[in-house]
Amino acid sequence: MHVIPIYTLFKHHALNGLVAKSPWPGEQAERSQADLQREARAHRQIQEGLTENDYTRRFIRLISCDPSDSTLTMEYAKMGTLRNYLQAHAEQIDQSRRYSWILAMAEGLAMLHAQSIIHCDFTPNNMLLDDRLELKITDFGCCSIDGSRPTGAASIRFDPCNGDWRTLATQVEDLFALGSSIFEVLTGKRPLEDIPSESQIRFRRSHWTRDGAFSSGGLPTDSYGGVTLPEWKNA
């Protein structure tokens, strides 16, 4: 058994093809347990609304939830996060593989929305790859279920509300994040990755125009640009 380093409020341990996702002790315990319970509820709702094939094809499977401390036992994705894979194998990934991931994330997001779930942190860091490099969506700890208020949000590059999760979530936020994720899959970089300051990103986004977005350096100048521009232009 070994710990998988992931930046969350949870501890991850891998054993025998499964992952145990457990809450941190101490001050973070109550919040992380609540988020794990939310994640388990989201999985149950997805399972009830989808065929078993669709669920296992597009989402990391929830195996069980321990009622004593909310520890989740889940499917282990051998190849790790999509973001890490993109960075580690940038030169080896062909376009057909990139397009297949884009279709998979769009399909999975549509399935979520059909079950009245808004992910609220839809990024390549929350998409995992199995041993066949099939993309599966994970991490529903801060999601909105049936209109409930979320408990978190994606970073500013993936959230049109600039990371403010105190308001009710809508599908628009996830669609914006989908556009940002498509950008990252096609280019290997997050939108505006060269700009470290969130305030500068807000300023840059607010002054974009349809013609100027590409020359500003925030969107790709090749044929991929039109894929993500509508989401960013309207943010």
From TrEMBL:
Per the record's keyword annotation, is Ribonucleoprotein included, yes or no? no
Q: Which InterPro entries match?
A: Kinase-like_dom_sf (IPR011009), Prot_kinase_dom (IPR000719), Ser/Thr_Kinases-Pseudokinases (IPR051681), Tyr_kinase_AS (IPR008266)
Q: What is this protein called?
A: EKC/KEOPS complex subunit BUD32
Q: Which SUPFAM superfamilies match?
A: Protein kinase-like (PK-like)
- Reactions listed under catalytic activity: L-threonyl-[protein] + ATP = O-phospho-L-threonyl-[protein] + ADP + H(+); L-seryl-[protein] + ATP = O-phospho-L-seryl-[protein] + ADP + H(+)
Every Protein kinase domain range: 1-235
Per the record, the domain of life is: Eukaryota
The UniProt record lists the EC number as 2.7.11.1
Gene Ontology molecular function: ATP binding; protein serine/threonine kinase activity
Species lineage, top-down? Eukaryota, Fungi, Dikarya, Ascomycota, Pezizomycotina
